[in-house]
Amino acid sequence: MKEFTRRGFIYGAATLAGYGLLVGVERVCLSAFADDSEPAGDPGPVKIVKFADDGQRLGTFALPKIQKTRADWKKQLTPLQYDVTRRAATEFAFSGALYDQHAPGLYRCIDCGTALFDSRSKFDSGTGWPSFWEPVARENVREKKDFSMGALRTEVTCTLCDAHLGHVFTDGPEPTGLRYCMNSAALRFIPRS
Fold it and tell me: What's the CA dihedral at 155, 34, 36, 167 to 10 degrees?
């Protein structure tokens, strides 16, 4: 029994180390081979629901999409925030400031300030990333199929600025059964007084 436990521990540690190496190589490749041409896309308008910092719904608004040059995003964001939100990288599990945040409040997009999630829908998924069972408003997030890292997943982005936030999975709790697994680097937490 002790040999099985030791062997399991070694295999588990090797798996985690391999995953960490894979994510690290992905980040280096994203930085090294990034296309620095200016983004082209639909300027909108898009509909989002605005919220006050206390969580009060202010209404639905049609706004032009926020589009900035890569240089402007780099001036505004930290290197990790830029890699996560503009290059769709993933922060290391259990490394983000918000995965263990349990205070009441609102989670906004780090790039544009759009309200994305409320602490009332946050739960501990045990994955090491902030997890929610629903967004604060469906209009504020977009979902699209993503086949990066050799697996079909559903990417979640901010509707207003196209920031990569994370992915949504179907193994979450009721009432939705969804797990919006987000990067702390993509979110700004606003505590509710």
Answer: 10
Catalytic (active site) residue 161? no
Active-site residue among 112, 158, 161, 181?
181
**91 close to 187: Cβ distance less than 8 angstroms:** no
Segment 73-90, tens digit of pLDDT: 999 999 999 999 999 999
Q: Which of 3.40.1670.10, 1.10.260.40, 3.60.150.10, 2.170.150.20 is the CATH number of 39-191? A: 2.170.150.20
- Distance between CA atoms of 177 and 168, rounded to whole angstroms? 10
pTM of the model: 0.79
| Domain ranges across the chain | 1-33, 39-191
Quick: pLDDT tens for 137-181: 999 999 999 887 677 899 999 999 999 999 999 999 999 999 999
